[in-house]
Amino acid sequence: MNAPAPSAWLTSWSFDAVGAVGVVLALALSITYAVGLVRAHRAGTAWPAWRTAAYLLLGIGSLLYATCGPIGSLRSAYLWMFALHVSVLGTVTPVALALGDPVRLMGWQRLFTGRLARLVTFPLLAVIVDAAGILAVFLTGYGQAALDSGAVGVILVLHMLIVGLVFSLPLLEEGVLPQWATPPVRTLIALGDGLVDAIPGIVVMTTTTLLMPRFPGFSRAGADPHLQQRWAGGALLATAESIGLPMIAILFAQWMRHDERQAARVDLVLDAIRPVSDDPDEPETDRPWWLDDPRFAHRFKQD
């Protein structure tokens, strides 16, 4: 009684207040993205198919699955399923939506240029706020209130999504953060985020007292509340770390592309100022030309 039947992962769907808001959000996000795709097509801009797939299949799909799908419908029956509900909305869905690159598609870069936007989207602040929010769900009455009240449940959904997007969008969207946030810096931030995101799962998993003693699923015959709480911590930890590794890989790929573009720009500059000899008999040499150019040679002289 600590886990649902395997078939429930496909057949358990519900449309309570949380499920309804999930459907509304999915429709709004999908329509907005579709409008951006139409504009890009009319402008002759080729949009990567993998970004569209990540946005719709992983982003919108995980949103529906965690609100009106099995995770959402069973969140009050199993504590670890409620933990999945929180962690998927706070990590998986935002990262998948950010992979769709909606900011660049819709031309919303200006939304991140103001002082308030810079403060809110500051990566280190977003990391702390995200982890603190998940801890608050289990260490305060927030999580229990979200189960008891549909309105608070909707607030929890919006809270997790917004905080997750505030962190994921600037980090994965190139050119949104200030110039100091180079690919190496953003990769380092993602590594730190993976460590901080592990804290809520570890806290929930190792706490011996019941954090949500009035959880509805504990009244089911055969349910083991302490075991479910350990599983809930494990679900938080597994979800956070499973999304952290792909995020680091994506940022590392952006880092490689950034270095390639930088090298190409340097080559263009050097080619533009490289002296061209008119003497066809001048022998070729592997010695870099700038070592013999008086404009640059003094910089390479050794004492």
Automatic annotation (TrEMBL):
Q: Which residues cross the membrane?
A: 20-40, 52-72, 78-99, 119-139, 151-172, 184-211, 231-253
| Keywords attached to this entry | Cell membrane, Membrane, Transmembrane, Transmembrane helix
- The entry's protein name is Cytochrome c oxidase assembly protein
Question: What does the record say about its membrane topology?
Answer: Multi-pass membrane protein
What is the originating organism of this protein? Branchiibius cervicis
- Write out the annotated subcellular location: Cell membrane
Pfam family for this entry, one: Caa3_CtaG
Q: Does the keyword Transmembrane apply?
A: yes
Cross-referenced InterPro entries: Caa3_assmbl_CtaG-rel
Coarse class of the primary localization is membrane
Please state the span of the N-terminal signal peptide per the UniProt entry: none
